[in-house]
Amino acid sequence: MRDTSDIAEPVDIPPQFTGPARPYPGGDPYADYRTAPFAFDVLPDLADRRLGGAVTAANDEFFADRENLLVPGPARFDPELFGHKGKIMDGWETRRRRGTAAAPHPAPGDHDWALVRLGVPGVVHGIVVDTAHFRGNHPESVAVEATALPGTPSPEELLAPDAPWTTLVPRTPVGGHAANGFAVAVRERFTHLRLAQYPDGGIARLRVHGEPVPDLAWLGALGTFDLAALENGGHVEDSSDRFFSSALNSIHPGRSLRMDGGWETRRRRDRGHDWVRYRLTGQAVLRAVEIDTGCYKGNAPGWADVHVLDATTGADPADRTTGWTPLLPRTRLQPDTVHRFLLDGAPTATHVRVDIHPDGGLARLRVHGSLTAEALSRKPGDGS
């Protein structure tokens, strides 16, 4: 991941890019890509395929498959790549709509749509409809709706007349070869989105940034689970460094399979150390901690220590000097290894901070425990 320290402060209202981009001029296809910092993109992508997100249905995907919308990483472009249907694009692309002989153009409300199941249900703060490499074949405008349905609804159930949909992004013009960002004001928990593009065209990627809100009844039934996991409502609130990769990676599902699959800091040239602060699913009793340095062989931290804090007492997690209780003393770490620590008599906590000494890579953090009765009784969307 590129260093973001020299980028301008994110804007609260994302800029709007409209109209087509210039034809591909050759060379770096991203050289004329239109984008800007967004205040919400520090939050995890709730639709991330790695979290279980999926595009479950679309009315048309003639030129390019709907599943491409949620592929991790930026869209790729090969100017020489063609198939029997035409240019092969890394995104979702529908055929050109037609009217009638008397009125050959699409009607004003004609559009294509795709249904997206969020990998992690939650509160959406911002959406990016990325039209990278779709320069003159992007939609004129887009709209996004959301719903919250229990269980695993089918596309037919989602499209039923009585399904309750809420507008997150009203129909809005977008630009070609651009990151079209939209801040979302609705603060409700959703499980599915419906993306509409008017009248047709191509969208490379869809990113849905927000706060995970898990099913507390399910977690309560499990008893002990990973309280830091993104899929269970855990979150990275802050970290000292994200030069090579984001600390959010450290709470993704499964083990890291590559060095860029975890959190890695730059090499320190001072006498300090790096750290990351996690907000747990809720107030919990902790039972065990795993620190995984998988795939970090010559760049694993030398040591780590762990502290916890209970924000329900009024303590401020952002204050690193007060309110924190040592949980694990400074402990030697091995490269490319899962380190497991059983906890006895650990205090209740809502936050965990891991300090690594002096720098390096942390692939995964797992904090196993059980929610307190107070945490299980809170309503979805309430704070810890």
TrEMBL record:
The keyword Cytoplasm does not apply. Pathway: Nitrogen metabolism; (S)-allantoin degradation; (S)-ureidoglycolate from allantoate (aminidohydrolase route): step 1/1. One of its GO terms (biological process) is purine nucleobase metabolic process. Keywords: Hydrolase, Purine metabolism. Its EC number is 3.5.3.4. Pfam families: Allantoicase (PF03561). InterPro entries: Allantoicase, Allantoicase_dom, Galactose-bd-like_sf. Transmembrane segments: none annotated. It comes from the Bacteria. It is an enzyme of class 3 (hydrolase). Residues 1-26 are annotated as: Disordered. Residues 52-212, 233-370 form the Allantoicase domain. One of its GO terms (molecular function) is allantoicase activity. It catalyses: allantoate + H2O = (S)-ureidoglycolate + urea. NCBIfam families: allantoicase. Belongs to the allantoicase family. This is Probable allantoicase. It comes from Streptomyces morookaense.
